[in-house]
Design a protein that fits this description.
Order of helices and strands: HEEHEHHEEHHHHH
Helix content: 25-40%
Largest sheet: 3 strands, antiparallel
Radius of gyration: 54 Å
Shape: rod-shaped
Mean pLDDT: 75
Structural class: alpha+beta
Strand content: 5-15%
Number of strands: 5
Distance between the termini: 143 Å
Length: 315
């Protein structure tokens, strides 16, 4: 019975090198260990995923493929009293390679399940081994080595940016280092290891100490400023008011009556206004029944009927 690949353990080996050995020597020693342990038909360094860790200095696995990563390995181990590093190797899986095997190939040869094609399982990558995370980790380590604070009595977290004008200490937290490492890992980089990025986390520093703003942010800020400085006519609302002609008449001064419209009354009009409707010598007429009244004034029968219907009985 074969043991599943997920439960197999590699054979440990020890490689001893001096600190002046080149990177090719280390790769040759790693390939020698692989050849002795696995005896592959084809042996190539690029066919394996090689990572390393250094206690207390590089705790997360970091790829060991480039000269820069090898230099970082030497830098970490030389800080130790007993220099040592742990190197892990793992064969890269091709697209058509099967990552799981049968636990027993001699049983159930006539069953339906054996006639089915075996499913290919894809081994998920470790997030720390993703290219971007590997680059961020390397940049973070470079920043930590560059800005380690050794000043006695400094209350920082262990990392400080020294201001060039007055030698003051600006504490670099994990958040500061993460933002700075991300700016260095950008393609292309938007800052350098000597200048902090132009980010809100570094607002406490003077602007002349920060790197230039990213080109995309500069373009966005310019577009916003142009829009605020010269708003387009289409965005300006148009409001119309309809005001009556006499709306502001209360603001005009009062004027006297127009002599043409208001003429003084004459004596004849005054006499007509003062005269009563009935003459003073007028006396009440005789009392007549309704029938006699209509006969005396020769009124029609319809008028007599209407007066009677309305309650008139006489004068």
């Amino acid at each position: 019975m074969k043991k599943p690949k997920a439960r197999r353990s590699g054979e440990p080996a020890i490689i001893k090198l001096s600190n002046d050995e080149p990177f090719d020597t280390l790769k040759a020693q790693i390939l020698k260990c692989i050849s002795e342990a696995l005896k592959p038909k084809k042996l190539a360094y690029d066919d394996y995923k090689v990572t390393f860790t250094v206690a207390r200095h590089q705790t997360s696995p970091l790829s060991l493929k480039k000269q820069l990563e090898f230099d970082h390995l030497l830098e970490c181990v030389l800080k130790m009293k007993a220099p040592a590093a742990k190197i892990l190797k793992k064969r890269r899986h091709d697209g058509g390679e099967q990552t799981s095997e049968d636990s027993d190939t001699s049983q159930g040869s006539n069953s339906d399940s054996d006639r089915k094609k075996k499913k290919k399982k894809k081994v998920p990558d470790d997030p720390s081994e993703l290219p971007l995370n590997v680059e961020l980790s390397a940049q973070m380590k470079l920043l930590q080595n560059r800005y380690t604070c050794n000043k006695p009595g400094c209350l920082s977290s262990g990392y400080c940016y020294i201001l060039p004008d007055n030698n003051a200490h600006f504490t670099l937290s994990h958040r500061h280092l993460s933002v700075w490492a991300a700016a260095l890992a950008a393609k292309p980089p938007i800052t350098t290891i000597e200048k902090p990025p132009n980010h809100k986390e570094f607002d406490g520093l003077s602007s002349n100490l920060l790197s230039d703003t990213a080109p995309l942010i500069q373009r966005r800020l310019a577009e916003r400023n142009n829009a605020q400085a010269a708003p387009s006519a289409s965005n300006t609302p148009t409001i119309n008011f309809n005001v009556p002609n006499d709306f502001f008449s209360f603001l005009r001064p009062a004027t006297g009556p127009n002599p043409l419209l208001y003429a003084a009354p004459t004596d004849h009009v005054s006499n007509m206004i003062d005269a009563p409707l009935l003459s003073v010598s007028t006396r009440p007429g005789p009392d007549l029944p309704l029938a006699d009244f209509c006969a005396a004034f020769e009124l029609l029968q319809d008028i007599h009927t209407k007066l009677a219907d309305n309650g008139y009985t006489g004068t």
